[in-house]
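Sharing in case it's useful to others searching the archive later.

Someone asked me privately for the predicted structure of Methyltransferase domain-containing protein, so I'm posting the question and my answer publicly. Question first, with the sequence:
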Amino acid sequence: MEKYYTTGKFAKLANVSERTLRYYDQVGLLKPSFVLENGYRQYGNQDLLRLQKILLLRKLGFSIEEIVSFLSNQNKEEDVLKSLQMQKELIDHRIQTYNSIKESLTLTMDTIQNQGMNWNKVIEVLNLLSRDDQMIESYKNSNNLKVRINLHELYSQNKIDWFTWIFSHIKFSKINSLLEIGCGNGQLWLNNHIELRNRQIFLSDSSYGMIEDIKKHLSDDFSFMVFNCENIPFKKDFFDCVIANHVLFYLKDLQKGLKEISRVLKTDGYFYCSTYSKNHMKEIGELVHEFDPSIYLSKTNLSEQFGKENGEQLLKSYFKDIQCFEYNDTLVVTNASHLVDYVLSCHGNQNEKLLKRVNEFYRFIEDKIKRNGNIQITKEACLFECKKK
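And my answer, the predicted structure tokens:
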């Protein structure tokens, strides 16, 4: 039987102040299980689990807005176990990082005492400190990516999923050396298989955390690297093929990125890059704008950076024989939670704007679904295939 606690008892049990509980309630981070007619708040065991995760994520440096975007559907046992595993991995990494920092500090002190000032050792410590911050940021990116992929996996109507469709277009019979840029969580390779013998396949991402995650799920037949697309650490004419799945529109310097990709490709080597049209997922933006016109889900219009409409023109400087294959689909969403999670995973100002209104936004989406039976969302993506000039 579920046990419930008053605010005072719950605060004492969790070793937090009642003021903290009231604040978490106000921002929608931790609501009581229910409120009695006399106004007394009642917290249950599930609230205790949620509070535990909130406190640990705060300790690890996550903002309130970021925690709001992570915490959803935490009442299921499997979600609780996944949450605890994630927390354990974050703590393990932090312990390893702090041990490395401690060892580096000790070595730096010994070096200075015996040899005088060594700035290289100081820089080494700074790099270790920044790597810890990068790991936390990488987890946020990885979690958001999983949320976005999940929406497509649950509600896509196209019988051929996106990654299988891309995989089917790659001319593997002509490819022995391949580089994927921005591999994310490796979804392209998890359920699609080719003969890897006598092939060199490098999976890269700018996120250290993404690469550490993918290593757990793919074999040692793949090589894994962390680098930025604008500076690819391979010699000229190295690869038969380069893949960039939904990557190019994120580059700070697109022309530099394309030039680098062209440089490492062999003559007539294949380049596959995907993007989407200006109409892709437009209904989500319209829903959010209807709820609050001040919310935007991306700081830049990604399809204008590199999209279906302008992709061929942007590729022409470095590539030839450009073909565009269209992938059309529709999402038919029937669960408000999944759509709310997707919105909270985006790159705009939604977490800041929805901080105190997440439950209100959830009801807004849920009412739309109840009224219409579902929410239909347009998917207009494409894959460009081209060759190095």
